[in-house]
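Case 198 in the screening queue. Each case pairs one protein sequence with one candidate compound; here the compound is iron/sulfur cluster. For every case the pipeline is the same: read the inputs, emit a complex structure as tokens, and attach any notable structural observations.

Predict complex for case 198.
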Amino acid sequence: MSLPTVTRRDFLKVGAAGASALAAAGLGFDVALAESTKVKQQLRIAGAKELHSVCPYCAVGCSLVAYTRQKSDGSVQLLQIEGDPDSPVNEGRLCPKGATAMQLAVSPRRVESPQYRAPGATGWKSVSWDFVLDKIAQNVKSSRDATFVTTDGNGNTVNRTEGIAFAGGAAFSSEEGYFATKLMRSLGLVHLEQQARV
Ligand code: SF4
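Case 198 output:
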């Protein structure tokens, strides 16, 4: 089968048709804009209260916008959390972890109390914060007592314990990191780490 011959005149006609289509698209752009504005007005966050916060997951400190609305019974419903486009840190973006921040508030799978698995136990059980804090204090005390050394092999005074390690939270501020370091050093800890995800 032979292909039709395209003359220079035919080519110019096609060009003219293309230009007309572009002009129509230009007109259509306004229509699309009007449509998108309409859609925006129908968004579930339309008229919602806008609150600013910071992602709790890591030290990058990306800014968040949380949209909330008060329900007829007076309770506040969280509608949406997204990156804050005005933030110089993340300019509206969030990493995959931060993008799930809303799940911290609404996920039915969220663990809402400390979990404890006793020595030898096969499962975890929910316990109170008082129980956990007492347990941590007891374990720190007993580990420190059992492993504390005052002098090293050369007779140098060291007053340290290598039986406990400390890992700082990823969302620590500088002040929290400073405080944690001071506290842990005062107990004689040598092994300190800061999980900053960067
Ligand atoms: S990088 Fe991710 S986890 Fe860290 S603050 Fe930003 S969104 Fe949160």
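Case 198 observations:
- The radius of gyration is 30 Å.
- Residues 18-25 have pLDDT under 50 and may be disordered.
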